[in-house]
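Researcher: Here's a chain I'd like modeled. Treat it as a single chain, no partners, no ligands.
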Amino acid sequence: MPIFSQTIKDLAHAAPATYFGTHDARLQPCVTRVQGARLEDSGALLLVLAKPIAEPTLSNLKDNGRFSFTLCNISNFETYQIKGRLQELAEAGPQELVLKELYLTKFLNELRALGYPGPFCEGFDRMRGFMTPAPAYALRCQAEEVFLQTPGPKAGSRLWPEA
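Model: Modeled as a single isolated chain. Structure tokens:
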């Protein structure tokens, strides 16, 4: 049975708001944006992080390998959280950079479709110069738990593995 539902995989490819959380040895949290994701039925995740903002996150991953990846549909707040472990960290290659650029384009288009004002979208578009193209990291991770976090009475319920 696939770890990720088709709904979660579709959301990951649709340019949701994405956050990647880690913590250091003193349990101090650190959060950064994910700029491209691919989820596989096996529970494997490929996540792309921009180098200029990734250093504290990488330090935490080297210390303990634990992460929490949250993805949220910005039009209806449908939200999922995936917890797991880092498997491999590498420089982003051409395929990961394409995934990153595609994510940023889709996210900007989603903001425009939701009616965000032109100056806001233009500012986000200018930020792309710092976010793309290279340098970036490709993180290969393995999911250990998946949770529903959409606001409502079922928020926090574990989807996988089943309780």
